[in-house]
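quick one before i forget lol
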Amino acid sequence: MAAETEANHVHSMFELAEISDGKPKCRPRILLEPIPRHTSVKAYVMKRARKACSCTPARAKDQITSFLPVLKWLPKYNLKENLLGDLMSGLIVGILLVPQSIAYSLLAGQEPIYGLYTSFFASIIYFLFGTSRHISVGIFGILCLMIGEVVDRELHRAGFDVEHSVPGSPHSDMSVYVANSTLGSVNQTAQALCGRSCHAITIGATVTFVAGVYQVAMGFFQVGFVSVYLSDSLLSGFVTGASFTILTSQAKYLLGLDIPRSNGVGSLIATWISIFRNIHKTNLCDLCTSCLCLLVLIPTKELNERFKSKLKAPLPTELLVIVAATLASHFGKLEEKYGSSVAGHIPTGFLPPQPPDWTLIPSVAVDAVAIAIIGFAITVSLSEMFAKKHGYTVKANQEMYAIGFCNIIPSFFHCFTTSAALAKTLVKESTGCRTQISGVVSGLVILLVLLVIAPLFYSLQKCVLGVITIVNLRGALRKFGDLPKMWRLSKVDTVIWGVTMLSSALLSTELGLLIGVCFSILCVIVRTQKPEGQLLGYVPESEIYEPLLAYRDLQTTPSIRVVRFEAPLYYANKETFKSMLYKLTEVNPLWVWAAKKKAEKQKLREEMASPDGNQAAVSVQLVTQPLEFHSIVIDCCAVQFLDTAGIHTLKEVRKDYGEIGIRVLLAQCSPSVRDSLNRGEYAKKGETNLLFHSVHQAVEYALSSYGQNGCCDSEA
């Protein structure tokens, strides 16, 4: 048994040469024995099962506090240090949320009351489940746009005239629904069951429910890695492109036009064509109101940003504009005199809970995928960004649970999709937020509006809400100013940004996201399929090797070529690897071997055709010129992995160069690459001195070995 163990020990190790004073030492080689990996599926399953089934009081407490983080930090809440900052930030964010919730409701194709519901429930639920202390969870413009597109499509399928029907009271719609929900078959039209507003929020809530289920499932199965495919440049391009679509959808409100909302591919262009065709129908009252609001909001927003370090809190300009515009519209009777479109009746209180429409789930399941991914990607990225800034940690999977429950639970209370929002989070942080108590305060502000103040916004013009939405797009549209810097940093990221932005704006948001993801993955594939290779030289009086084209005054060893391959070696780039190696070394072993064979045949024909007619055996002499080098060292520090094709390629390269008298040595291979080479039998039994710890070690070995033998034998 001991002998068998020793034999296995020897064969499982890959030998690496040890060099001293430029000559191989006559002592045992360095043997690196890999740690055995237990791959027994049964043992793994049993281990996981025992861990999952074990239950102790400490583990139960840990599970509960992990699922409800509020139980962990709330008992330790420091009133003296945190309460004032949380109250101030919660109050300010709540004041900002009121006008934005009403404005973004239009974007989602919903009544204003549903936007207030959404902001209220999201703030309370994230307080219970979230791990970030600073992010503000609520309505997000991009998600509202995506929800609105689904709502308009399903309303059209249900037979509603999306733009020209006048929304009624949500309470009256709900009463019709409750009274008729038990009547008739599922084939009855939606109009018979409830009004347009009721059906619109039913669609929005159903999409929200499905998206929330997806997010919770991603948290349960720990598939948060999906977000790594949404790079910063991709998300930025997507948000900027979608911002153009949002701006386009709100432009008709600024002009007071009553035109249908375009959906599908090319909706942005179709909407602008429709706007210019109906430009003569512009409502001058709405246009003047929009211009006045823009003249007030844009400068004050700029002032808020410029002097945010000096202001204790941002000016609540949006709320002041809404109050002033509502008063002007009410006392000026702008709806009756000039036909301005107004928000209409906004009821107080809450509607009774209603489950999602299960029959709609097959129709919206695909749409919910993109909504779920965008929602959790933005939430997780913002959570991690602010946690890193303030020195604490967040749990990505718990964040997915939190945002999932922020969608699942409110979907029963007439709400639509939410996520973290950067602008409100920045305001929240800058005004002294310490914990999610500030979110509860914001929720209480919205609750006050829901219970008391909401009906006072009856006369608020929709063009004012459109202006608020457009002004809040400034941050995304400013990304164009960052393009020169992005181009200098990474041309590939800039191209990804541009492709995602254009496809999101000109095609559709869902297609734009899909195209952006596919294009970014394609860029990664292309960069690994056509990687760079470098010829290396050493820094004088050191063992450091760097690319000859990158640094001055590097030196080379004339008889040795040192090459670095900067990518994994796998089936897609194996030919590129060989071409790169032939180009950098200026020697194609196949051509050299073919030239040798041709020279042999030519010499043989000349000898056999000599005048003396001697047909005896001929000693064939090669007539090709001698090669300038005898060894190639491949620096594998950038090779992350090898597949079967990669291992076969390395074998083939070593064999081809060996046949023309050139030795191929590998240096700085990672443990995973060495393991792949070992399992792929890169070195035959008895072969040594093929792998080295460093490039310098390989070069020294090649020099000493060639000097001792007078030739370069690949089997030495």
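fyi Residues 238 and 501 are 5 Å apart (CA to CA).
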